[in-house]
């Protein structure tokens, strides 16, 4: 049952736990202060056509209406417990799921929840200036939708911290509002969440690649033996699906527009006509894919082994595996040895980050294939590519060595020589910023992106998604 009338909408019977309710109602104004300080810049008083989660029923969990962002009803929603649910993997496979934090895994669980929680407000901070250069009202609305839902995801993690981790949890919840994306003194925990999101191509790449890391982390946690975490992340995934949609379809629309402009220009130069050329799109793919691949952590990881063994963090579609203990399997991996790439058999539990990254890569490739269909239909021979998992890494066994986007080992000199062909350079960035002119008229759109095939919630593209 959802309680919408309370200060904090929820389906977790918050009203029955006065202490917890008071603690969260104390955190609430701090959250609102954070939102006004580092949430979307401007537009806070403009009604936007947003969906709000109101329950977890598959048939009607979202309500669409105009809302001013500070009045968004951020709530706590958890999928109801299943009876007789058993742990699906790890050392505790087959035992009943836990409804309280097991003492021995308290620190590990808190770290998992804090790390996930930290990404949610971080992305809102990263995206805060984009409203001023939105390519259309439709895109502006999608940005705000993603922002308010990341705010709700923060609420989801803060609920777990407050309910299950006592005083430490309350302190962690405060700190989630203190760190700031890109701040050298108090940065967000993970690298990609301190990267600047300067323009809308960054934003679309972020929602395609970085939010998609989020999707796979949530999938892995939705298998957790700690059932409150599993049920919370399970519901977050329904919202996350829209963020994936925003990134993937927007990049398809950008690609489509580029192809149209290439066809129009005698030299097939999309930039000439106010579009983003395919090589620049490729560089942004290279950048955001590689920083997002880092988010999965090291290829060979004792933490990953611990989390899997302790039944805290599972695999994508754990149910499709035969062996849920993963005690004797191996994972063949290309590792660096004496300056060369060699194949090594890594004990499966230690390779769990890589197993999850495999699912992610497959999903990214599927998106990329979709963009390439657009290019193919325009009879243009170029193709976009997901780079090798070894390219431009800062974390794991490939960090510190130099690889081409195709994954070939190279040296620093060679890499530096090609850097500007592989990753966005200053002139690409300034070109993009020259394109970023706001379009706030319903039904109109910027020169560098095609309109969507469909609007939101059955509305047409020319619907007034944000009243500016
Ligand atoms: Fe999120
Ligand atoms: Fe997201």
Judged by helices, strands and strand pairing, the structural class is mainly alpha
Sheet bearing the most strands, described?
2 strands, antiparallel
> How many distinct folded domains?
1
What CATH calls the topology is Ribonucleotide Reductase, subunit A
Encode the helix/strand succession as letters: HEEHHHHHHHEEHEEHH
The largest sheet has its strands arranged as 1-2
From the alpha carbons, calculate the radius of gyration and give it in angstroms. Answer: 23 Å
Proportion of β residues?
Answer: 5-15%
Average pLDDT score: 97
Q: What is the class in the CATH system?
A: Mainly Alpha
- Percent helix: 40-55%
Heterogens: fe (ii) ion
Q: Which second-level CATH architecture applies?
A: Orthogonal Bundle
Helical segment count: 11
Low-confidence stretches: none
Ends distance: 36 Å
Number of beta-strand segments: 6
Shape: globular
Give the name of the CATH superfamily.
Ribonucleotide Reductase, subunit A
Mind explaining what this structure looks like?
This protein is mainly alpha-helical. It has one domain (14-435): Ribonucleotide Reductase, subunit A, CATH 1.10.620. Helix content is 45%, strand content 7%. The chain has eleven helices and six strands. The chain has helices spanning 18-38, 106-126, 137-164, 166-176, 200-221, 227-264, 278-293, 302-309, 352-377, 412-422, 426-435; strands at residues 48-53, 62-67, 330-337, 340-347, 402-403, 409-410. The strands form three sheets. A two-stranded antiparallel sheet has the order 1-2. Strand 3 (330-337) and strand 4 (340-347) form a beta hairpin. Helix 5 packs antiparallel against helix 6 (227-264). The two termini are 36 Å apart. The mean pLDDT is 97. The site of one fe (ii) ion (FE2) has 5 residues, from helix 5 and helix 6.
